[in-house]
Design a protein that fits this description.
Elements (H helix, E strand, L loop, with lengths): L6 H4 L5 E2 L2 E2 L1 H8 L5 H6 L2 H5 L10 H11 L2
Antiparallel strand pairs: 1-2
Length: 71
């Protein structure tokens, strides 16, 4: 499976690796203008994931969960 787009377009470098998920880097990204799309439509990486695309989510639902994550 292949993600649509590249990870640098979707997540800050080093935030998601084979070693794990750096939530601090993700939160820092969400505080930038590039992170606005994640906050309004859901996580860019999740939306790009072919597996996740089989589980439709309403943008409003995703935005709610992003607000809960990024407090």
């Amino acid at each position: 499976m292949k993600l649509r787009g590249t990870l640098p377009d979707r997540l800050p470098a080093g935030a998601l690796t084979g070693a794990g998920y750096d939530t601090a880097a993700c939160h820092a990204f969400l505080d930038t203008p590039r992170g606005a799309g994640c906050m309004t439509g859901g996580c860019n990486v999740r939306r790009a994931c072919p597996v996740s695309q089989t589980y439709a989510r309403m943008p409003e639902q995703s935005a709610y969960h992003m607000r809960q994550f990024h407090r």
